């Protein structure tokens, strides 16, 4: 992966806004076969997207997760629901177990509950239920996730091959030096109902075997692999009562070990890991602190770590890097513009945020990024303005840091 050897480089966390044409095509795909010419449409859209990233000043570009079907301008889940179309052994069950499940975890009586039982959601129930509040995400029971009803197998070979081909072609056509593709982690993938495997550990490791195929394909193609894994931090909000930090670290260890198993023998310097507390626009008052999760994150065998640092719930946590030593040769990709607000950050603020991290870990080890994916979270016009101000702030910081 490129490092900021002579200036602060820029990237983003993955998802970017889809065009109306791509949204319409994805909607048609949900009702049956892909519309005629879809493959060419997708390839062209990815090239146009990469070109626009380059023009906005983004150095390490992605495909915007365009190969992960999203059929609505607002979508918080395409980053992981894509895996349902690429995995055998899954089936839609006509109940709400995925949303309300109470799964025995470890240690003690710690339990991971379903998406409807978040502690943040319970504290702000009226706001979450109010369609005018800005955090209403619809009725989760309306779009049930599948359950695992048989042995998991990877069936996404054609889909990942298309993702790779589209981004590779876009890099060649635009002259972009480096590109990344995102893929789901075993820990996040396993947050559906298991009706087949005998234990939670067996289920998580089955996902690790499945997703490793996608990881290897991306790296073998010469691209950077980004692991999307909000579960590492976000699961904390789904455990009731609130666990101790020690118990949560023990609960999370299985997810980390399974991910490292899936990444075994793959080059760390081609892997970046994305941690976040969930991209929905809620209060997030029950998020685990970065100081309590950073050591767990650093156990993951990746060469770079992407995390939220621009939203108002976590911005103050840049101070963590005054006390935590980043392992030799690794990078951080802090979010310095946020998906959680429509306010476009000023370039001077972006520069200030970058400089704080540079003071903690060294300027060469900071690549400026976004908190989370911008696609499906904020209006496209605002998303692109945020990418432009990200690049402007990086230029200001570079002038200050290199003189």
From TrEMBL:
Positions of the Cobalamin-independent methionine synthase MetE C-terminal/archaeal domain: 199-387
Annotated InterPro entries: Met_Synth_C/arc, UROD/MetE-like_sf
Protein name stated in the entry: Cobalamin-independent methionine synthase II family protein
Species: Georgenia wutianyii
Lineage: Bacteria, Bacillati, Actinomycetota, Actinomycetes, Micrococcales
């Amino acid at each position: 992966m490129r490092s900021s050897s002579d200036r602060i480089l820029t990237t983003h966390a993955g998802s970017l806004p889809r065009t109306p044409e791509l949204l319409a095509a994805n909607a048609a795909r949900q009702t049956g076969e892909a519309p005629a010419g879809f493959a060419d449409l997708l390839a062209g859209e990815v090239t146009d997207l990469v070109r626009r990233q380059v023009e906005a000043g983004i150095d390490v570009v992605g495909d915007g997760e365009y190969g992960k079907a999203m059929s609505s301008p607002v979508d918080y889940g395409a980053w992981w629901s894509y895996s349902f179309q690429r995995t055998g052994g899954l089936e839609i069950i006509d109940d709400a177990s995925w949303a309300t499940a109470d799964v025995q975890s470890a240690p003690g009586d710690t339990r991971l509950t379903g998406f409807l039982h978040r502690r943040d959601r319970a504290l702000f129930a009226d706001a979450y239920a109010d369609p005018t509040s800005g955090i209403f995400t619809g009725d989760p029971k309306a779009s049930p996730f599948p359950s695992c009803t048989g042995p998991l197998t990877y069936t996404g070979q054609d889909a990942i091959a298309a993702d790779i081909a589209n981004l590779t072609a876009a890099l060649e056509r635009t002259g972009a030096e480096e590109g990344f593709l995102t893929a789901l982690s075993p820990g996040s993938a396993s947050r559906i109902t298991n009706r087949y495997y005998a234990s939670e550990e067996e289920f998580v490791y089955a996902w690790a075997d499945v997703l490793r195929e996608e990881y290897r394909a991306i790296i073998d193609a010469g691209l950077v692999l980004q692991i999307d894994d909000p579960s590492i931090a976000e699961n904390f909000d789904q455990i009731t009562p609130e666990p101790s930090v020690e118990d949560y670290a023990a609960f999370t260890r299985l997810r980390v070990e399974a991910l490292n198993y899936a990444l075994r023998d793959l080059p760390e310097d081609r892997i970046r890991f994305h941690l976040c507390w969930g991209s929905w626009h809620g209060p997030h008052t029950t998020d685990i602190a970065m100081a309590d999760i950073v050591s767990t994150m650093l156990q993951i065998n990746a060469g770079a770590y992407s995390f939220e640092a621009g939203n108002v719930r976590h911005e103050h946590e840049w101070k963590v890097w005054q006390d935590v030593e980043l392992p030799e040769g690794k990078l951080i990709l802090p979010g310095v513009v946020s998906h959680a607000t429509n306010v476009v950050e000023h370039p001077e603020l972006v520069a200030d945020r970058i400089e704080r991290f540079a003071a903690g870990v060294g300027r060469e080890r900071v690549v400026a990024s976004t908190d989370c994916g911008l696609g499906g979270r904020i209006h496209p016009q605002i998303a692109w303005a945020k990418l432009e101000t990200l690049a402007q702030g990086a230029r200001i910081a570079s002038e200050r840091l290199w003189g």
